[in-house]
UniProtKB/TrEMBL annotation:
<dbReference type="GO" id="GO:0005388">
    <property type="term" value="F:P-type calcium transporter activity"/>
</dbReference>
<dbReference type="InterPro" id="IPR018303">
    <property type="entry name" value="ATPase_P-typ_P_site"/>
</dbReference>
<dbReference type="GO" id="GO:0033017">
    <property type="term" value="C:sarcoplasmic reticulum membrane"/>
</dbReference>
<comment type="function">
    <text>Catalyzes the hydrolysis of ATP coupled with the transport of calcium.</text>
</comment>
<dbReference type="InterPro" id="IPR023298">
    <property type="entry name" value="ATPase_P-typ_TM_dom_sf"/>
</dbReference>
<feature type="transmembrane region" description="Helical">
    <location>
        <begin position="84"/>
        <end position="106"/>
    </location>
</feature>
<keyword id="KW-1133">Transmembrane helix</keyword>
<keyword id="KW-0106">Calcium</keyword>
<dbReference type="Pfam" id="PF00122">
    <property type="entry name" value="E1-E2_ATPase"/>
</dbReference>
<dbReference type="InterPro" id="IPR008250">
    <property type="entry name" value="ATPase_P-typ_transduc_dom_A_sf"/>
</dbReference>
<feature type="transmembrane region" description="Helical">
    <location>
        <begin position="840"/>
        <end position="859"/>
    </location>
</feature>
<dbReference type="InterPro" id="IPR005782">
    <property type="entry name" value="P-type_ATPase_IIA"/>
</dbReference>
<keyword id="KW-0703">Sarcoplasmic reticulum</keyword>
<keyword id="KW-0067">ATP-binding</keyword>
<keyword id="KW-0813">Transport</keyword>
<keyword id="KW-0472">Membrane</keyword>
<dbReference type="Pfam" id="PF00690">
    <property type="entry name" value="Cation_ATPase_N"/>
</dbReference>
């Protein structure tokens, strides 16, 4: 049935053909189940191990590697020489892919295990009336069908959406904060709600699945229907997955073009004598070179390094209470531009706390004055102080026992109360037992400690109720006049115990009012009690109320209830001479208001669900990082705006028009206006889960990357739709299953920490990609040029694998441990369309150093072959044209000697030195050690087909590598000041320029001369004597013999 809140109970019973006294028959249950299905949301089944393994190979880059391994394996089968070494290449590639898959599967399994540990079971049982059962029977909640008659009582979780048909208690209170975000429990009733467009918060006759009964008992009819929104929501691929796919596609195209080009260019060499004159053998030889080129172009270690980096990020985030369910979503956090956050429990503590209160002091102008207090503490922990309002800034606390009115106020708070706080030994926190506002009073009584109870040595559990027990020991609660919607108050009739005999029986009265009615506060919480008050308490005396005093009290409560504070106010009073119990008709709740008269007002307390202390700074961090924060709550607009001002979402006096909307106001806008509202809004109040999905759609249409929080069953579609769905650790299992991340501590600041971690992970990924690509570009350029020019192959596939995996792979993996850049949260969110490898990132790594070192070895090094251009381009004719290759050993063309090549992408080494990441230093040391091993251990250099380097060759490697630091620092300087920002012409800027120029001068004076013959360095005669002497001394210290000429070599 549509809109059951707008139907009468009789209409619902007729529609489902059910008798509310005996329930449905078994036949009706079966028919209803066939029509509506089981009372459960379709849950995502856990993935099997084989599915997780296959998912790790569902990546284009991995598929390219797999293809390369297969081709290498096929070629190895036809290899006649060195058959063992031929299989090294495919074996190593497969080993990499298996290791990559293992890391991915391990991390996802661990994340699921952590989330399972956080999940609480959904309600499993329900109390139902069925014709086939005697009385009220317990059945599994999933067996409920629409039309079932269900009973609920205090402590029960609501097993399905239900319409109330009868309330047995005076009042029925439901804690539905998990659904609507309302901090206080909601009073329900059976009356029809005629508004067809009513939001969930206004459906006061409906109980929603997953909420809790705070007090009362009722009978309901099930009206819920199976939701399929979550299943119909498609999961989007993350920006990282999209970019890796694009990178893989680009790489595959480039590899294909280059490989075909190399093979085609050398068609004329297929029949060269070096291949035995066989065209087929020549074709296979150059096909092997093409495969080597493919191996060189593919950064084999990249998938494993990315997976490892993401896994490391999830570990760090888990330590900060953020549990990530899927690895790629970690990086997505880094480009988050909008965070849509719930209010209750995320931005606030979801622990109602008394923030202010006032009592009456000495008379001023014939009227009592107000004595106001501020109370510290923002959780259910019974720790805090009472400060006089004027002295809060001075840090002066007062003893509540010094104020007689505070003693009486504490007594009312302890006696007009059915709630308590309990210490959770596992979580090591205090939790409420009962209704939120009553729990706030319980905690206030403990903070006041009006009888100065000695609490030293008490256990945490005893500390939660020590002062309350003292007060409750002085009075005996005879009966309670329960709270009702009409009179908005509750009271208890108490008689003194033997410990307190100087007074007679009293009634303690507590009156409350909803904050949204504060506009009519003249008739709300205050007026509800003021109309029945005759006096106010001043110390041990009482003073009659008059119109002027009533106006002052009303204004003060309105001040508390509106504006920045927007506190929920409770007026506390006593009836010193109550009716005799024998004269009260307690079975008729409509007459309770007659017994709550002649009240003496003792004081008023104001409470709120306080913001978390760290949230304000976190929102400021988001603003600095270019991230917009939107509060989305089911609570009322005034309360939400007040919290928004406290946490810095709005400034103190900022006009919220156009920035704050209720769900109804948002629905009344046209689609174009709704889209425009989502561009600038910072608050949506009184919203339903469906609004969340719509808001996400509009934000995504604007190109925003959205993180959405949620904890209820109905939040699942929005969590699925958002790029990052964030479930609360205290939320429902369905919400957790639909999310990418779970907050174990339900804290907004944890989201900001996760965003920072996501940015750091992306920054680290760019660093190890630039590190890997720099080597791969050098390899590709070297192999391509040698193949295109007919020069013998420089590097064979197994050597390329070693360089890509060990020499590069270990340090690249260690880069995943890099700390975040110092300005990581001062940058605007990166665009999801930003290329993984930008033009600027590509610019510094064109392989010039690799090509230059190869040219140096072949043409200039004294122990090298000393070749000229003809030798290099006609090397295959070495054996058949010995006259043109005098004193040249032809084997040199088949002897592939190896060739050689920052902590932050743009931060200088002076700001972030390498030892900030000790793992990077260790990885470089390990990589170099392994490199030495394969160079100088005979069996290994046979497998890798390499020769050890002599000292002069190592010196060449160091000299070629040295300028990399200066070049990198220069490029970082350019990137920081021109590519990513605008350089400031201040002293610091000039100093950095000077340091870089000095580095270049030193490099040129100590290194460049090595490439230039000594004759060029002769000192000109016109050089001044002083400069000439300095020059000669410099040459004596730094002179390096120039390259030996070809003639001298032959001699």
């Amino acid at each position: 049935m549509e809109n059951p809140h707008a139907r009468t109970c009789e209409e619902l019973l007729r529609f489902y053909s059910v008798n509310p006294e005996i329930g449905l028959s078994d036949e009706q249950v079966e028919k209803s189940r066939e029509k509506y299905g089981w009372n459960e949301l379709p849950a995502e089944e856990g993935k099997q191990l084989w599915q997780l393994i296959l998912e790790q190979f569902d990546d284009l880059l991995v598929k390219i590697l797999l293809l390369a391994a297969i081709v290498s394996f096929v070629l190895a089968l036809f290899e006649h020489d060195d058959q063992i070494t031929a299989f090294v290449e495919p074996f190593v590639i497969l080993l990499i892919l298996i290791a990559n898959a293992a890391v991915g599967v391990w991390q996802e399994r661990n994340a699921e295990s952590a989330i399972e540990a956080l999940k609480e079971y959904e309600p499993e049982m329900a109390k139902v009336l069925r014709q086939s059962k005697v009385g009220v029977a317990m059945i599994k909640a999933k067996e409920l069908v629409p039309g079932d008659i269900v009973e609920v009582s205090v402590g029960d979780k609501i097993p399905s959406d239900m319409r109330i048909i009868k309330i047995y208690s005076t009042t029925l209170r439901i804690d539905q904060s998990i659904l609507t975000g309302e901090s206080v429990s909601v009073i329900k009733h059976v009356d029809v709600i005629p508004d067809m467009k009513a939001v969930n918060q206004d459906k006061k006759n409906i109980l929603f699945s997953g909420t809790n009964v705070a007090s009362g008992r009722a009978r309901c009819i099930v009206v819920g229907k199976i939701r399929t929104e979550m299943v119909q929501t498609e999961t989007e691929r993350t920006p990282l997955q999209q970019k890796l796919d694009e990178f893989g596609e680009q790489l595959s195209k480039v590899i294909s073009i280059i490989c075909v080009a190399v093979w085609a260019i050398n068609i004329g060499h297929f029949s060269d004598p070096a291949h035995g004159g066989s065209w087929i053998r020549g074709a296979i030889y150059y096909f092997k070179i093409a495969v080597a080129l493919a191996v060189a172009a593919i950064p084999e270690g990249l998938p494993a390094v990315i997976t490892t980096c993401l896994a490391l990020g999830t570990r760090r985030m888990a330590k900060k209470n953020a549990i990530v369910r899927s690895l790629p979503s970690v990086e997505t956090l880094g480009c988050t531009s909008v965070i849509c956050s719930d209010k209750t429990g995320t931005l606030t503590t979801n622990q109602m706390s008394v923030n202010k209160m006032f009592i009456f002091g000495n008379q001023s102008n014939d009227d009592p004055s107000f004595v106001e207090f501020d109370i510290t503490g923002s959780t259910y922990e019974p720790a805090g102080q009472i400060h006089l309002f004027s002295s809060l800034l001075d840090g002066k606390a007062v003893r509540s026992s010094d104020y007689e009115s505070l003693v009486e106020l504490a007594t009312i708070g302890a006696m007009c109360n059915d709630s308590s706080v309990d210490y959770n030994e596992t979580k090591r926190i205090y939790e409420k037992v009962g209704e939120a506002t009553e729990t706030a009073l319980t905690v206030l009584v403990e903070k006041m400690n009006v009888y100065n109870t000695e609490k030293f040595g008490m256990s945490p559990k005893e500390l939660g109720c020590a002062s309350n027990r003292v007060l409750q020991s002085l009075w005996k609660k005879e009966f309670t006049l329960e709270f009702s919607r009409s009179r908005k108050s509750m009271s208890v009739y108490c008689t003194p115990t033997k410990n307190k005999t100087e007074v007679g029986a009293k009634m303690f009265v507590k009156v409350s009012e909803k904050i949204e009615d504060c506009v009519k506060i003249k008739k709300g919480a205050p007026e509800g009690v003021l109309s029945r008050c005759t006096h106010v308490r001043v110390g041990s005396t009482k003073i009659p109320l008059n119109p002027r005093l009533i106006k002052k009290i009303t204004d003060k409560i309105q001040q508390y209830s509106t504006g920045r504070d927007t506190l929920r106010c409770l007026a506390l009073g006593t009836i010193d001479e109550p009716f005799s119990p024998g004269l009260m008709q307690l079975e008729d709740s409509n007459k309770f208001v007659q017994y709550e008269t002649d009240i003496t007002l003792v004081g008023v307390v104001g409470m709120l669900d306080p913001p978390r202390m760290e949230v304000r700074q976190s929102i400021e961090d988001c603003r600095r990082a270019g991230i917009r924060v939107i509060m989305i709550t089911g609570d009322n607009k005034n309360t939400a705006e007040a919290i928004g001002r406290r946490i810095g979402l709005f400034s103190e006096h900022e006009d919220t028009k156009g920035l704050s909307f209720t769900g109804r106001e948002f629905d009344d806008l046209s689609p174009e206006q709704q889209s425009a509202a989502c561009r600038r809004a910072r608050l949506f109040a009184r919203v339903e889960p469906a609004h969340k999905s719509k808001i996400v759609e509009y934000l995504q249409s604007h190109g925003e990357i959205t993180a959405m929080t949620g904890d209820g069953v109905n939040d699942a579609p929005a969590l699925k739709k958002a790029e990052i769905g964030i479930a609360m650790g205290s939320g429902t299992a369905v919400a957790k299953s639909a999310s990418e991340m779970v907050l174990a501590d339900d804290n907004f600041s944890t989201i900001v920490c996760a965003v920072e971690e996501g940015r750091a992970i992306y920054s680290n990924m760019k660093q190890f990609i630039r590190y890997l690509i720099s080597s791969n570009i050098g390899e590709v350029v070297s192999i391509f040029l040698t193949a295109a020019m007919g020069i013998p192959e420089v590097l064979i596939p197994v050597q390329l694998l070693w360089v890509n995996l060990v020499t590069d792979g270990l340090p690249a993996t260690a880069l995943g441990f890099n700390p975040p850049d110092l300005d990581i949260m001062d940058r605007v969110p990166r665009s999801p369309n930003e290329s993984l490898i930008s033009k600027w990132l590509f610019f510094p790594y064109v392989g010039a150093a690799t090509v230059g070192s190869a040219v140096w070895w072949y043409m200039f090094y004294e122990d090298g072959p000393q070749l000229n251009y003809y030798h290099i381009t006609h090397w295959m004719r070495c054996e058949i044209e010995p006259e043109n290759f005098n004193d040249i050993d032809c084997h040199v063309f088949e002897d592939p000697h190896p060739n050689a090549m920052a902590l932050s992408e743009n931060q200088s080494l002076l700001v972030m030195p390498p030892w900030w990441n000790i793992w990077l230093v260790a990885a470089i040391a390990l990589s170099m050690t392994l490199h030495f091993v394969i160079l100088y251990v005979n069996i290994l250099n046979t497998i890798f087909q390499i020769a050890p380097l002599c000292w002069a060759e190592w010196m060449a490697v160091f000299k070629i590598s040295f300028p990399v630091i200066i070049i990198d620092e220069t490029l970082k300087f350019v990137a920081r000041n021109w590519i990513e920002g605008k350089a400031g012409r201040d002293l610091r800027f000039m100093l950095k320029c000077s340091v870089i120029v000095f580095g270049w001068v030193v490099f040129l004076l100590t290194t460049v001369q090595w490439f230039i013959p000594n004759e060029i360095w002769n000192v000109p005669v016109y050089m001044p004597d002083l400069v000439q002497d300095a020059w000669e001394r410099y040459r004596q210290l730094t002179v390096i013999p120039g390259p030996i000429s070809m003639e001298k070599k032959r001699q």
